Amino acid sequence: MEEKVDDSISTESLDEKDFEIYILRDADKRPDVVCCKIADFI
Amino acid sequence: MIKSQCTIFYPLDQINNNYLVYNTLFRTAAIVSGKVKELIEENKYLDKIPPNLKEKLLQMGILVSSKEDDQKRLIDSLNKGRNPDYFFPVIAFTAKCNLKCVYCFEEGIDQSISMTPEVASKTVQWMKDYVSQNGHFSRIHLALFGGEPLLDMENATYFIDETAAIANELGMKFVFNLTTNGVLMKRKTIEEFVKKGLQGIQVTLDGPPSIHNIRRKFKNGKGTFDIILQNILDIADIDKIIITLEVNIDEQDINSFGELLDILAKNGLRDRLRLVPEPTLETMSCIGFKDHHCNKYVLKGKRLTEAYIRILQEISSRGFHIPEVIGVSYPCIFGERHHYVIDFYGNIYKCSFTIGNKDFIVGNVFDGFNWRNKDIISSKNVINACYEKKCSFVPICGGGCRYEAWAKTGSYHSMNCKKEMIETILPLSLKQYFIGHNTHSESIQH
Fold it and tell me: A16, B49 in Cβ contact below 8 A?
């Protein structure tokens, strides 16, 4: 028996609006990773 | 190209079908459409994402080039977290304390002891040797701890000045913190400390007066709330210092947490304090004593999750700042190199919670490290086990607090997993943190 492939995404039409991204924190804004006790102070 | 193991999606609104996407390793965050979320999660339709958006998602660590790359970046980052570029000594130079708190983890320790000049001098020498031998630090971050450190100003001043001298001699920055019960936290003392490099103070209020005063009291039973609040207000305008307010949360005070926030807001402290609600831990002194405060009131399992939900709701509804991540923290000081706690006898530990327990001593300032205990200073195996379980939260949890793992199971090597709790509370804190208080964001159109 042939395996059923879910191709709902591949066939669905996608418009430009679907690919908008609203960045809340970019890669260069990563906060310092510090140990749990020091984090209490910074 | 695949989705990173550390990427998680949380639905924002059903009408627009938008999602908050967050990467726990890079701490990046964005809002994307439900369609993009589906394409990423399905993995096999990534070619449908426009190249510029794909590039951005790669930059943010939401997508990665391969599973191997994902694992390498995670392990590299966790190793970096364990190998910071600063030296972080916590000096508990006195066991003296003016309070008798119901959950004190130093219970049973002789409270007449302070570090002798000989031990203090040897401690400074040990720190100098350590920094010289392990070099390349950008700063020394000293923490004054006790007992109550403000009861021993002689040692406090000695350690501030001598540690600053080490940093100065070796070309490093010097800052220090103070963990105090707040009773002796007078403005004049704090102003003097600021001149010497004080960066932050941690003080504790456990609820409104009716609750705080039965938990954090003088030895004669008198409450401390009014004194501590007044002392906080007296230094609130010294803007060079961060004032962290720890609230130890358990069954006894969780219902009054909101009331405490109302008092703080009424006194103009809403934007001045950094709130750190921490669950009361099962301490060494409570093990085996069923009537001990911690055994009676400690929050566990679902109750702990419910407590964090309540905390976030109370904070949010009153306009206080929400922590990005709450309930877990990595790196754990147990696993971090260059972090040590030294007690009044010169014994060296990895975590302040273990002061007084000889099983956790990793050395002393006279003889150096006792390498029989070196295995307790690594959480590497736990982290690897968490990664193998494909957990998305490893970078923010690291397998959990090692002390708590020991208190629960008798082994500091056991996994202290809080995945179920994180799955419930992380979306709440992230949505509030990024959507509720977001001020720095940008939109990219494709």
Answer: no
